[in-house]
Each structure stands twice: as C-alpha cells, then as structure tokens.
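Severity: low
Component: inverse-folding endpoint
Summary: output formatting inconsistent between runs
Steps to reproduce: submit the following structure tokens with default settings.
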C-alpha cells in the first residue's frame, strides 16, 4: 500500500491511482466527484491546454457497498449506477435568472443512496466564483466545487459518518469540508500538484460557516 502523501489531524491524502489502494481502505461514507469523461478542451486559466476529463471513471467497480455514497455527475454514469430517487441537485444560478449566454451548466446532480426524496440547494457559483465571497477557483482545478456544497453532501449522509472517503480528491474540497465539520477524511488523487494544493488548504484553520444544518 502507498505511503500517505499527507497525514494530520485525522485527514490523510494518498498520491496514487485510487484503484491501487481502495480495497485496503475503510471509511464510513464516500463523497466524490469522479471524472465524467466529457473531454473538455482546456484547463481553467489556460485555454488551449491538453484536454482534461478525457476518460470516464469506473464508479461501479470501486464505490459500491453498504456505506452511504454520493457521486457527483451521476447522470453521466447511468449505466453504472442503480436507480435512486435520492438525488442532490445543486443550482448554480439564482431563481428567476434569465438571458444567460454562458456555456457551463446551470445545475449539477449527485447520485446518492442516502434514501428519501431529492434535495435541492441553491449556491450561486459564477464560473467558479460566488459573488461577494472569498472562496473562488484560486486553486485552478477545472472541476472544483464550493466547500459549502460538499459540506451539504456530508451533512445529509445517513448515520453521521465519522470518516469520509473521496477517491477523486482533486484540490481537496471534500476533505476541507470534512475537516470543517470535525470529521476524519481520506483523499486519493493521482496528480501530485493537486495533492500539494489540498495539503495547503488543509493546513488552514477550520473555517466558520453557515448553512450546514439538516
């Protein structure tokens, strides 16, 4: 098994292909945003760079079990995920917004096995930045999500899981959200530069936040 890239305060990061170590890891819930395989043409702040998200993850082969699961982009994995009514839907634009010509999606969907009806959260996120807030896409991961949205995913997981696993960690937003909530977390990321970014984010003090109530 690979040695941890980072380990502190109940948070562990591994820099490797998640398929190498998933069978040996134990966690109470999985909250993750895997590659969808949509083949975007460039990276944030670097137009013309090599495509990212070219290969879709095999979520069926690595995530199933009895523990709570939350898989962002579940609509891209219809052939891998069983039917569920317990979707989490994140609205990126305010209600009633009209006349938008931007190309990114106005909402994103997460498949879960949490049980219960779909839930919706509005959190305005303008291409990686929420107006008036400090948090933005300064970490330059093309699929970065807001910390508040990932906290929402963790808070709604049944049985209050103590350890959260993210096999596709990226810049560490899920781990940062888990730390803010006082949970342990394990993240796996194949690109070392994102492991370094995540470690720096986790070294910050726990953030004050609102809106993580059930």
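Observed output (run 2 of 3):
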């Amino acid at each position: 098994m690979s040695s941890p890239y980072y380990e502190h305060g109940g948070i562990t990061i591994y820099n490797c292909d998640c398929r190498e170590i998933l069978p040996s890891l134990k966690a109470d819930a999985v909250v993750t945003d895997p590659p969808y395989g949509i083949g975007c043409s460039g990276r944030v702040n670097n137009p013309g760079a090599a495509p990212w998200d070219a290969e879709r993850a095999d979520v069926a082969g690595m995530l199933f079990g009895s523990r709570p699961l939350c898989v962002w982009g579940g609509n891209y994995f219809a052939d891998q995920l069983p039917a569920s009514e317990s979707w989490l839907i994140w609205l990126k634009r305010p209600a009633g917004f009209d006349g938008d010509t931007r190309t990114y999606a106005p909402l994103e969907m997460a498949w879960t096995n949490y049980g219960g009806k779909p839930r919706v959260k509005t959190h305005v996120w303008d291409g990686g930045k929420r107006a008036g807030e400090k948090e933005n896409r300064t970490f330059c991961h093309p699929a970065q999500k807001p910390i508040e949205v990932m906290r929402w995913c963790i808070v709604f997981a049944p049985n209050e899981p103590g350890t959260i696993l993210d096999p596709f960690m990226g810049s560490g937003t899920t781990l940062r959200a888990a730390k803010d909530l006082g949970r342990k977390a394990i993240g796996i990321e194949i690109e070392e530069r994102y492991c370094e970014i995540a470690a720096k984010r986790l070294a910050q003090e726990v953030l004050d936040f609102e809106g993580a109530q059930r």
